């Protein structure tokens, strides 16, 4: 590992979580309210956290949201890293990797290609990002479903990760691995529909231990006990989307046009912070910063 990656904030945070046996949230972020709520929650709970942005955050505002997230992370009193999730376009990866003081890590998501092309493209962009001191993540197999910002694989069949396939991705030089073990993007409908193959996950963890850290995708609808079980089985950063904005979305729906915009933003931020703090407790991140 290069010195630049040894000093990489995302690498340090995720390795500390693996060594400490806890997880921490990766907060999928679409607006300034979520950035503010993430920093406030992290500082209130003295917990590590990562701000996750989809490529949309780059194309929508020409990177302004990225700069805001990075500035917030740098000014925080606890470790906060900024991660680009599900970068599925090579031009976006190149642009993201060259944003000054922008991303600490980038997920190179080529799962919409066949396996061999996925591996080849992943290896290419891992090298490109590492040369710039940016950590990398990839998704062996393919998770089913789609959500805002993750649409390119929505129409494709899911493929569960095997230990053998995980090792092929480790060979590309990735730092973090997002396995498919029954988790999916989007909503499960109900907790009883969540069917996670922890034996498969344990096999992947054993095969890759010491070479990469595991990160969790597809947590919409997860009750606390399932999230905790995922951490016990080796997950470090656990991505959360709807779990941290569902109260905010409901509040906005019920109050938009009825209260001032500043009140809407302030109260919405408080609700997001409340949900993030709960996830920090569930994952064991509280007090770990």
Total domains: 1
Radius of gyration: 18 Å
Q: Architecture, CATH level 2?
A: Alpha-Beta Barrel
Question: Tell me, what is the CATH class?
Answer: Alpha Beta
Helices and strands, in N-to-C order?
HHEHEHHEHEHEHEHEHEHH
Instruction: Report how far the terminal alpha carbons are from each other.
Output: 24 Å
Order of strands, main sheet, comes to 1-2-3-4-5-6-7-8
Structural class: alpha/beta
CATH topology group? TIM Barrel
Structure, described:
The protein is of the alpha/beta class and 289 residues long. It has one domain: Aldolase class I (TIM Barrel). Helices cover 47% and strands 13% of the residues. The chain is built from twelve helices and eight strands. Strands 1-2-3-4-5-6-7-8 form an eight-stranded parallel beta barrel, surrounded by nine helices. α8 links the parallel β5 and β6. α3 runs parallel beside α5, α3 crosses α12 and α11 runs antiparallel to α12. The chain is globular. The model has no long low-confidence stretch (mean pLDDT 93).
